[in-house]
Structures are given as C-alpha cells and as structure tokens.
Design brief:
Helix content is 41%, strand content 0%. The protein starts with 17 loop residues before the first helix and ends with a helix. The protein has one domain. By secondary structure, the chain is mainly α. The chain binds coenzyme A. The site of coenzyme A has 22 residues, from helix 5 and helix 6.
Length: 133
C-alpha cells in the first residue's frame, strides 16, 4: 500500500484506547535502538506513566496531546508540537506520513498555529523521513 491510497481517521483521545495502546507497546521487543523516539522522554518529563490506565487517562484528558497547542522549554527543545508513533505490525503502510499530513490540516484552523515544530532524534532516520515527506 502506498501513502497515496492510504486514509487515516483522526479520533479524539479516549481512555477506551488504553488496551490498544498496551498491545501496540507489546510489539516493541525491547528498546528500538534503530529508532530512538522522543515520546518516552516527553512522558517522563511530564511524569506521565502511559503503561498505567491512570497515566494514560491523565494524558488523554489533556495533560499533553499528540498535537500540542503550546510549547514549554522542554517541548520547544525536544518534543515539538506533534508526536507520532505507529505500531510495528502496521508499519510501512504510509500511516505516519498520512497522519502527519492530516494533523497539519488542523494546525491553522481551528488551533491557530502559523508554524509547527516536528522533531525526531537525529539517530532516527525513519522518523526523519516521515517528517520530511
Ligand atoms: C517512525 C514511524 C512513526 C514511521 O511510521 P510508518 O507509518 O511506518 O511510516 P510510513 O509508512 O509513513 O513511511 C514513511 C517513510 O519511511 C520509510 N520507512 C518506514 N519504516 C521504515 C523502516 N523500518 N526502515 C526503512 N524505511 C522505513 C517508508 O518507506 C517511507 O519512505 P518513502 O516515502 O520513501 O517510501 C514508526 O516507525 C514508529 O512509530 N517508530 C517508533 C516511534 C518513533 O520513532 N516515533 C517518532 C518520534 S519523533
């Protein structure tokens, strides 16, 4: 499947997605040294434990979203406005590239951002590719 034929539905964060989130995490067999991501560092910095139902609920209730409407010093340096991750079993189907494009459609209206910062670790060439597409 190519990015051109991919459709992605953006859904509001919901605690009901916690089980799916755990399943997705279980597909990562140990640290992804090839793709170090900033999401875990963002969660650590904000003291949010996404592995717990409470932590996940705290996050989806608005502590931090995948499209962050405002920056603090840490997000301006590391996390950026948009966080993204795709479970391994669904990788390489164009989901990240398509979803990033969908999110970008929201940043001006209604969110009101004229520019967004999207970051990745310099040792994460795959993420870099999705950002630069
Ligand atoms: C990085 C990540 C989001 C990519 O998601 P994805 O849905 O597989 O990406 P896409 O299918 O949209 O692919 C985008 C590009 O990357 C390439 N790509 C994707 N996975 C790849 C891999 N494992 N190896 C090499 N290239 C890869 C695709 O071929 C595509 O390139 P192309 O446009 O030249 O064909 C996903 O691998 C992931 O969640 N990684 C772990 C967490 C992470 O790194 N998050 C980003 C934090 S900043």
């Amino acid at each position: 499947m190519t990015g051109a034929s991919m459709t992605v539905d953006l859904v509001a964060p919901d605690e009901a997605l916690w089980a799916s989130r755990l399943e997705s995490s279980s597909e990562c067999a140990g640290p992804q040294e090839d793709q170090p991501d900033s999401a875990s560092r963002v969660s650590q910095c904000l003291d949010v434990d996404l592995a717990s139902c409470d932590g996940f609920g705290q996050r989806v209730r608005g502590v931090v979203g995948q499209l962050r409407h405002s920056m603090n010093a840490f997000l301006a340096d590391v996390g950026g406005h948009i966080g993204h991750g795709v479970r391994r079993s669904e990788g390489r189907k164009g989901i990240a590239s398509t979803a990033l494009g969908e999110v970008l459609a929201y940043v001006g209206d209604p969110v009101g951002l004229s520019r967004v910062l999207v970051t990745c670790d310099e040792r994460n060439p795959v993420s870099r590719k999705t950002i630069e597409v």
